[in-house]
From TrEMBL:
Signal peptide: none annotated. It catalyses: L-lysyl-[protein] + 3 S-adenosyl-L-methionine = N(6),N(6),N(6)-trimethyl-L-lysyl-[protein] + 3 S-adenosyl-L-homocysteine + 3 H(+). The keyword S-adenosyl-L-methionine applies. This is Ribosomal protein L11 methyltransferase. It comes from Thermaurantimonas aggregans. Its EC number is 2.1.1.-. CDD domains: AdoMet_MTases. HAMAP family: Methyltr_PrmA. The gene is prmA.
Amino acid sequence: MEKQQKYLGFHVTLSEVHPWKDLIIGELGEVGFDMFEDTDNGFVAWGLEENIDQPKALKLLEAYEKKVSFTLRVEQTPVQNWNQEWEKNFDPVEIPGFLRIQAPFHESKEGFQYSIVIAPKMAFGTGHHSTTYGMCMLMQNIDFNGKRVLDMGCGTGVLGILAYKMGAHSAEGIDIDEWAVQNTEENTTLNAVDMPVKLGDVRAISGVYDVILANIQRNVLLADIPEYVKHLSDGGSLLVSGFYQDDVPAIESVCVAHHLRLVDRFTKNDWVALHFQKKN
């Protein structure tokens, strides 16, 4: 009899979310977990049980015990129940009058300028996370008509898809995660959007863009913003998120040093999204 595949879930509740959540998630991603859900006081990490080095995962969590207090609950879920769980827990994300992000199993709803369908394979990039929501909030104030757009660290591709639907001449995606590339390709098909996507990091960027969307992580942004600027047209827009309010001075300092000026911002749950414009 064939062994039933299972998902393994680590439910982690932290006494201090920042900066520990991002640090722990980054390490769990190296031992086989590839899906992460945000919770109010932590996160849930998911992955196929057969792909996860569980002893190593538990050992890396033990290393954090002296740094931050946390609780861990381990869960196993049969693969065939996965979509059922998502259907029970995945609610559409709505920005009134502007945008509705929904899963394929949701019924459509009138009253929004744009509607995007995202296959529910992970929480990040569906709009549920405050950073994705913040990027979408900033995007509604930008004229994308005829613009060349890069979705850097595209994840599910939701930002690039939105830019294309808002009139962009072209939208492209780049991500370091092969799963993200595949998921973006799937989601562009679901939304009938022509958005090429490739595997790689900042070195994979080529050409010049009018808008660069980078919802990544603080340290990556600090290292890569200078390279983004090289590929940004004069007067072009750089939208960044993936960091907290306390990180804004460091992000802004790098941007100002590379001829960018802050023109808009959005904050939700202490997560910040910033819109910079390149000086002519």
